[in-house]
Model the fold of this input.
Amino acid sequence: MSDSENTKSAVSLLDRVRIVLVNTSDCRNIGSAARAMKTMGLSQLVLVDPIEMPNGQAQALAAGATDVLSNAKVVSTLSEAIEDCGLVIGTSARSRTLPWPMLEPRGCGEKMITEASEYPVALVFGRESSGLTNDELQLCHFHVQIPANPDYSSLNLAMAVQTLSYEVRTSYLLSLDEDKQEHSTGNGTYIGKNSLGKKTFNAKSEDNELYPVTEESERFYQHFDNALKATGFIGDKHPGLVMTKLRRLFNRARPDVKEIKMMRGILASIERASMKGHQ
Ligand code: SAH
Done:
């Protein structure tokens, strides 16, 4: 590790990048993913309901990264794994029926490092057999697809972890360079630059407000769902795709915490008005 890499603030950026593996069936892939992570300086591994818990075979494949493996947190749902994260990016080997805001691997790395200055960020990987479900993908702000051979685009799980972790590391190293060049004040508002040095991302909104973490945005979506059911816009029996499309709309707009608060105030006023209407 270089001197600058050893500085506390810089190291904590990588410590706030979480790799989440959902429902992995072969624990050897978990071991290989741990190794891939450690080579790129990542250590936060979360396993959502693994089918096979890491055993000796997983340890053998983790090689020098058994610490990452033994420190892995095991949880039962994806929501639990990401509730405190302000940015969640889901990975997908193929295009889905409902298109979602997409990032290139490079952009994914930049965004993760930019926003890791504010809160934990997560990169979510799916099952070997079937990837992530639509419900799981809808919990993500963005999707990232490694632009592989269109005729054979599905990478081995651990290799996908390696490829995207490398992009995270590349952005992280760029952020260290910038810290040196710009004598960063360490105020946590690192602006991302793409490979051409053009500034791309900001970790906060235009009003300099934070973005909500998953737990807060899920409460907002729940409130929205309740309000739309109260007004009758969404039928109890046939909810359709309304909430999915609203999630996509709000993901695209990326409301900050103040805007979410305002939206919840609006929803509460609609609920009150619809109660009065029913009296
Ligand atoms: N057959 C599955 C692919 C699973 S591969 C499907 O059709 O979805 C296992 C996991 O590796 C995926 O869920 C994803 O997290 C990751 N992965 C594999 N190839 C990828 C690619 N080209 N881009 C992004 N992630 C990929």
Remarks:
- The pocket of S-adenosyl-L-homocysteine is lined by residues 91-94, 125-126, 128, 130-132, 145-146, 148, 153-155, 157, 160 (CB under 6 Å).
- The longest strand covers residues 17-22.
